[in-house]
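Quiz preparation item.
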Protein backbone atom coordinates (compact mmCIF):
# COMPACT_ATOMS: atom_id res chain seq x y z
CA UNK A 1 0.00 0.00 0.00
CA UNK A 2 2.86 2.32 0.75
CA UNK A 3 4.28 1.89 -2.75
CA UNK A 4 0.95 2.58 -4.44
CA UNK A 5 0.44 5.77 -2.51
CA UNK A 6 3.90 7.05 -3.62
CA UNK A 7 2.98 6.52 -7.27
CA UNK A 8 -0.17 8.59 -6.88
CA UNK A 9 1.77 11.40 -5.18
CA UNK A 10 4.20 11.86 -8.12
CA UNK A 11 2.81 14.34 -10.57
CA UNK A 12 3.95 15.12 -14.10
CA UNK A 13 3.57 18.19 -16.25
CA UNK A 14 0.10 18.56 -17.65
CA UNK A 15 -0.27 18.01 -21.41
CA UNK A 16 -1.32 21.63 -21.93
CA UNK A 17 1.79 23.03 -20.23
CA UNK A 18 4.03 20.57 -22.09
CA UNK A 19 2.51 21.59 -25.43
CA UNK A 20 2.96 25.29 -24.67
CA UNK A 21 6.61 24.69 -23.69
CA UNK A 22 7.34 22.71 -26.87
CA UNK A 23 5.71 25.33 -29.11
CA UNK A 24 7.58 28.19 -27.42
CA UNK A 25 10.92 26.35 -27.73
CA UNK A 26 10.31 25.76 -31.45
CA UNK A 27 9.39 29.45 -31.97
CA UNK A 28 12.53 30.64 -30.13
CA UNK A 29 14.80 28.29 -32.11
CA UNK A 30 13.13 29.38 -35.37
CA UNK A 31 13.66 33.04 -34.45
CA UNK A 32 17.33 32.44 -33.64
CA UNK A 33 17.89 30.67 -36.97
CA UNK A 34 16.06 33.45 -38.85
CA UNK A 35 18.11 36.22 -37.23
CA UNK A 36 21.37 34.34 -37.81
CA UNK A 37 20.54 33.73 -41.48
CA UNK A 38 19.51 37.35 -41.94
CA UNK A 39 22.87 38.47 -40.54
CA UNK A 40 24.78 36.11 -42.83
CA UNK A 41 23.18 37.24 -46.08
CA UNK A 42 24.01 40.69 -47.41
CA UNK A 43 21.87 42.97 -49.49
CA UNK A 44 23.11 42.91 -53.06
CA UNK A 45 24.81 46.12 -54.20
CA UNK A 46 25.34 46.58 -57.92
CA UNK A 47 27.28 49.02 -60.06
CA UNK A 48 26.81 49.12 -63.83
CA UNK A 49 24.49 46.10 -63.47
CA UNK A 50 27.26 43.96 -61.92
CA UNK A 51 27.81 42.87 -58.33
CA UNK A 52 29.95 45.59 -56.79
CA UNK A 53 32.46 43.07 -55.38
CA UNK A 54 33.34 42.14 -58.97
CA UNK A 55 33.61 45.80 -59.97
CA UNK A 56 36.45 46.17 -57.44
CA UNK A 57 38.58 44.10 -59.88
CA UNK A 58 38.37 46.97 -62.38
CA UNK A 59 39.47 49.72 -59.97
CA UNK A 60 42.94 51.02 -60.85
CA UNK A 61 44.66 53.81 -58.97
CA UNK A 62 48.11 54.95 -57.98
CA UNK A 63 48.99 56.76 -54.78
CA UNK A 64 52.00 58.41 -53.22
CA UNK A 65 52.76 60.11 -49.93
CA UNK A 66 55.67 62.50 -49.65
CA UNK A 67 56.32 65.47 -47.43
CA UNK A 68 52.89 65.21 -45.83
CA UNK A 69 51.10 65.34 -49.21
CA UNK A 70 48.92 62.43 -50.32
CA UNK A 71 48.35 62.12 -54.07
CA UNK A 72 45.89 59.70 -55.67
CA UNK A 73 45.35 59.19 -59.41
CA UNK A 74 42.35 57.21 -60.71
CA UNK A 75 43.75 55.30 -63.70
CA UNK A 76 40.75 53.02 -64.21
CA UNK A 77 37.27 53.38 -65.64
CA UNK A 78 35.51 53.09 -62.28
CA UNK A 79 34.84 56.23 -60.21
CA UNK A 80 36.18 55.94 -56.66
CA UNK A 81 33.66 57.40 -54.21
CA UNK A 82 35.93 57.55 -51.15
CA UNK A 83 39.12 56.12 -49.76
CA UNK A 84 39.71 54.43 -46.42
CA UNK A 85 43.16 54.98 -44.94
CA UNK A 86 44.50 52.32 -42.59
CA UNK A 87 47.36 54.02 -40.74
CA UNK A 88 49.72 51.55 -39.01
CA UNK A 89 51.62 52.67 -35.93
CA UNK A 90 53.99 50.18 -34.29
CA UNK A 91 51.70 47.14 -34.13
CA UNK A 92 48.38 48.96 -33.97
CA UNK A 93 46.38 50.75 -36.63
CA UNK A 94 43.69 53.34 -37.07
CA UNK A 95 41.22 53.50 -39.96
CA UNK A 96 39.97 56.87 -41.23
CA UNK A 97 37.96 58.11 -44.18
CA UNK A 98 39.85 60.44 -46.47
CA UNK A 99 37.12 63.03 -45.86
CA UNK A 100 38.15 63.14 -42.19
CA UNK A 101 41.67 64.16 -43.19
CA UNK A 102 41.02 66.41 -46.19
CA UNK A 103 38.30 68.84 -47.18
CA UNK A 104 39.50 68.77 -50.80
CA UNK A 105 38.31 65.23 -51.62
CA UNK A 106 35.65 65.60 -54.35
CA UNK A 107 32.14 65.22 -52.94
CA UNK A 108 31.05 63.03 -55.89
CA UNK A 109 34.26 60.98 -55.72
CA UNK A 110 37.35 60.70 -57.88
CA UNK A 111 36.20 60.13 -61.46
CA UNK A 112 38.12 58.39 -64.23
CA UNK A 113 41.44 60.07 -65.03
CA UNK A 114 41.16 62.60 -62.18
CA UNK A 115 43.81 63.39 -59.58
CA UNK A 116 43.58 64.26 -55.90
CA UNK A 117 46.41 65.86 -53.97
CA UNK A 118 46.32 67.45 -50.53
CA UNK A 119 48.36 67.81 -47.37
CA UNK A 120 47.08 65.44 -44.72
CA UNK A 121 48.20 64.88 -41.16
CA UNK A 122 48.65 61.19 -40.36
CA UNK A 123 51.00 61.60 -37.44
CA UNK A 124 54.38 61.50 -39.15
CA UNK A 125 57.14 60.08 -37.04
CA UNK A 126 54.82 57.58 -35.36
CA UNK A 127 53.23 56.04 -38.47
CA UNK A 128 55.00 53.28 -40.37
CA UNK A 129 52.73 52.74 -43.35
CA UNK A 130 49.41 53.68 -44.91
CA UNK A 131 47.14 51.26 -46.69
CA UNK A 132 44.67 52.98 -49.03
CA UNK A 133 41.47 51.05 -49.81
CA UNK A 134 38.92 52.21 -52.41
CA UNK A 135 35.28 52.70 -51.47
CA UNK A 136 32.68 52.45 -54.24
CA UNK A 137 29.04 53.49 -54.32
CA UNK A 138 26.38 51.34 -55.91
CA UNK A 139 22.66 50.70 -56.10
CA UNK A 140 20.72 48.41 -53.79
CA UNK A 141 17.08 47.74 -53.12
CA UNK A 142 17.05 50.46 -50.46
CA UNK A 143 18.90 53.15 -52.45
CA UNK A 144 22.57 53.92 -52.91
CA UNK A 145 25.06 52.28 -50.56
CA UNK A 146 28.82 52.37 -50.17
CA UNK A 147 31.00 49.29 -50.44
CA UNK A 148 34.57 49.01 -49.16
CA UNK A 149 36.67 46.83 -51.47
CA UNK A 150 38.67 44.03 -49.85
CA UNK A 151 41.73 45.51 -48.17
CA UNK A 152 43.98 42.51 -48.81
CA UNK A 153 43.25 42.34 -52.55
CA UNK A 154 42.73 45.99 -53.48
CA UNK A 155 44.59 47.95 -50.80
CA UNK A 156 47.53 50.11 -51.93
CA UNK A 157 50.40 50.15 -49.42
CA UNK A 158 52.58 53.20 -48.91
CA UNK A 159 55.62 53.07 -46.64
CA UNK A 160 56.33 56.28 -44.78
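Solution:
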Amino acid sequence: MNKASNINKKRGVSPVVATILLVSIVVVIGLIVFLWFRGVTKEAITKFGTNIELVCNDVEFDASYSGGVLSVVNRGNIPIFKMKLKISEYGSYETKDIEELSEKWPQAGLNQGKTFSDRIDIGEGTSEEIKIVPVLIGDSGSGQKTFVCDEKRYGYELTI
